[in-house]
Amino acid sequence: MIDFLRGQIALLETEYVVLDVHGIGYRVFCPNPYVYGTKKDEIVTIYIHHHVREDAILLFGFSTREEQKLFRKLIEVSGIGPRVALGILSGGSPDHVVAAIHQENISFLIKLPGIGKKTAQRMILDLKDKLDGMGAPSLFDEAPVLSDAQEGNSGWPEAREGLKALGYTDTELDRVWLRLKDSVGPDEAVDSVMKKALKLLYAG
């Protein structure tokens, strides 16, 4: 089984990258391929989950061991396949996902791509006692992972209204905020927040 690959980014797409490893191009599906957008001429390491099924051999890749480990835990949950697990990691950092499971924060989990209430409950039931040592323990004692205060202290609420006027749905905007919030400063201008959000929305 392949555990990691090291090479140069040869191609960047919305769902995957092609990694050139000594002249062989490996297609690797990633939670957010654009994290490699500034590293096209660099040697990068991508941690791999090598998934084999009857009709395909697929590579799923992660920028950290923590993401790789959480992905493998997620696909052990009934009803969560590799694509859904990848969507979960595209919508929330490992620290936040783990914290939400420990906190039994269903409202956070159902905002992740592909997760409904029953699946969120199953994630909590199956994984709460299996994630020891993962994530940041300090998160468990804080307010809910995606707090109203965190949204209100940035330009996001106003930017969100502007994006809704452009036709984006609440579901799309919730998912984008999960990916965006760590890069938005408390005093950041609304137009800057909108530009960042639109870049993620266009990327898919």
Fraction in beta strands: 15-25%
Spatial strand order of the main sheet: 3-2-1-4-5
- How many structural domains are formed by the residues? 3
Kindly report the average pLDDT value. 83
Structural classification: alpha+beta
Number of strands: 5
Q: Number of helix segments?
A: 9
Biggest beta sheet attributes: 5 strands, antiparallel
The radius of gyration over CA amounts to 17 Å
Order of helices and strands: EEEEEHHHHHHHHH
Q: Note the gap between the termini.
A: 30 Å
Extract low-pLDDT stretches.
136-153
CATH topology of the largest domain: DNA polymerase, domain 1
Which CATH architecture of the largest domain would you pick? Orthogonal Bundle
Residue share in helix: 40-55%
From the spread of the alpha carbons, the general shape counts as: globular
Look at the structure and give the CATH class of the largest domain: Mainly Alpha
CATH-level-4 superfamily name of the largest domain: 5' to 3' exonuclease, C-terminal subdomain
Question: What does this 3D model show about the protein?
Answer:
The structure is a single chain. By secondary structure, this protein is α+β, with helices and mostly antiparallel strands. The protein contains nine helices and five strands, in the order βββββααααααααα. It has a five-stranded antiparallel sheet, covered by helices on one side. It is globular, with a radius of gyration of 17 Å. Mean pLDDT is about 85; it is low at about 135-155. Pfam families: HHH_5, RuvA_C, RuvA_N.
